Amino acid sequence: MPSYVITGASRGLGWKFLRQISSDLNNTVIGLVRRKSETEEKVKGEFHDRTNIHIVEADITDYAALIQAKAEVAAITGGGLDYLIANAGVVSRFDAYDPIGVLGQQPEAMEEDLTKCFKVNVISNIHLFNLFTPLILKGEMKKVIAISSGQAALNIIPQLGIEVAALYSISKAGLNTAVAKFSAQYAKEGVLYMSICPGMVETGHFADATEEQMDGL
Ligand SMILES: NC(=O)c1ccc[n+]([C@@H]2O[C@H](COP(=O)([O-])OP(=O)(O)OC[C@H]3O[C@@H](n4cnc5c(N)ncnc54)[C@H](OP(=O)(O)O)[C@@H]3O)[C@@H](O)[C@H]2O)c1
């Protein structure tokens, strides 16, 4: 029975991954979320017959919570893990519509937002990978997938002149580099670390955008 851990499974893309992957009852699917009971209610409401879904609680910025989550995952799977999908992430609203030069006019807010993006999207995922790689090494498929963004692709930014989402993109570039470093270390042990971009998906981030902001986007 292939096993999956999906972070950020409470909503958006993570919820959809949980839904799709658990539709095959042979898959054991573990969603990591910040509010367990809330997501369990949602699961009960939509897929009450899917006994292959498990919900584990962890804020990925909380290292101790990740250690606890790892133990819970190991107890569910019997010790190994086939796929880790690092989907949880912060999508900044602060940088969504303005270029970096405009963001810099609010230096403190910019620093705060970049620090938050970095903490969640980069540092927390590094902790996640370090803690969960021993389980992946015991799994059969050995795949770690980071949900990153084409916004961080250094060839695309100048080609298309993408001015917006600078802070988010910087953090995703950091994530991509971390993934490459994990790959460099663990490829020889058969682990595939990979960053992918899901494309642009409407998950409600721009619900309160003005018409002008949407045009820009
Ligand atoms: N949507 C797009 O167009 C798009 C495009 C490219 C890449 N991506 C990437 O795809 C991933 C999912 O995007 P999305 O649009 O589904 O985002 P979303 O709707 O904002 O969902 C983000 C998820 O991450 C979780 N999360 C955030 N901070 C967390 C933390 N500290 N600890 C644990 N979980 C945390 C959220 O949990 P809570 O419910 O507890 O807040 C939520 O489940 C992100 O990494 C994003 O950067 C999205």
From TrEMBL:
Gene3D superfamilies per the UniProt record, alphabetical: NAD(P)-binding Rossmann-like Domain
N-terminal signal peptide: none
Lineage: superkingdom: Eukaryota
GO molecular function, one term: oxidoreductase activity, acting on the CH-OH group of donors, NAD or NADP as acceptor
Pfam families per the UniProt record, alphabetical: adh_short
InterPro entries reported for this sequence: NAD(P)-bd_dom_sf (IPR036291), SDR_enzymes (IPR052184), SDR_fam (IPR002347)
Stored PANTHER family: CHAIN DEHYDROGENASE (ATSC), PUTATIVE-RELATED, SHORT-CHAIN DEHYDROGENASE/REDUCTASE SDR
Protein's name according to its UniProt entry: NAD(P)-binding protein
Species annotation: Penicillium angulare
